[in-house]
């Protein structure tokens, strides 16, 4: 990981800190000797993701819900920065239950903005999403050019961006939005109906079960390893370039991999550990509603304003992720 200005002694709230991305952020911040307050209601996060941090004096767990303004105010008390990760992810989940997704992703986000404003937090960095590009077919995706959202989830993430811009205008709160592109890596949950594709497939291959691709596998994604996401969060938190603030940034690698080739790479990396996995067939099902066919980010803006350079391209990240799952599943 690259060096950043020291965060030692800084107080930072990580919402969704028991989730995949949030717990990786908590862990990294603690390694930098920052003081971390993790706010999570364990809706989709897990205690085991943060268990090892609980005994650290620098770490505090605040179990609570971002839909409750008082909880958000309490979380932001005496804090320098917020890394806002809490949300209900997953396009299909939002199609099944748009009301809860909206309440958490928009209502909860607004509560955190209000709390950050009231408690005079210096900067709030938040998880935005590549789903905001919606039906725009232009590739690569550049931040200023978005289409119509294809799911309730995508709407919530776009509304968050609008609220963040407005809080600068209206209350002078500094924010940075990070449009994550298909993040993967250690601690991502393979379980449940809304599991992300990489951990889900890893688990199936490890059990010698055939994973099923939605569609013919030609859809493509800019799969982004967790360490690149941590780097962007740290850059967004520490940049002293004021022009870099109150903007949104693609958080990606700038490469595109089809779902089928991702599945084949996974199978061959796992087959190095268990040769029987090489024989596991990859199946195909129907396309899934709300999915964007292709996703590829331009990372020029992040490079220009933040000095971001991804440390892991797709296959490097995938190898590390596979090693981690092999040890931990
Ligand atoms: N993983 C990706 O590929 C990806 C892509 C784009 C955007 N994002 C965004 O990044 C963020 C983190 O995603 P993740 O992949 O780590 O998901 P995750 O589900 O592992 O983490 C989300 C965390 O938020 C917590 N949470 C949910 N509702 C809450 C509530 N009401 N109050 C308090 N905590 C709550 C969950 O318990 C969980 O720990 C989310 O905002 C997500 O929308 C993720």
From TrEMBL:
Question: What is this protein identified as?
Answer: SDR family oxidoreductase
Q: Where are the transmembrane segments?
A: none
Signal sequence residues: none
Name one matching Pfam family: Epimerase
The NAD-dependent epimerase/dehydratase domain extends over: 12-250
- What InterPro entries does this protein's entry cite? Epimerase_deHydtase, Lipid_A_modif_metabolic_enz
Coiled-coil region list = none
Top-level lineage group: Bacteria
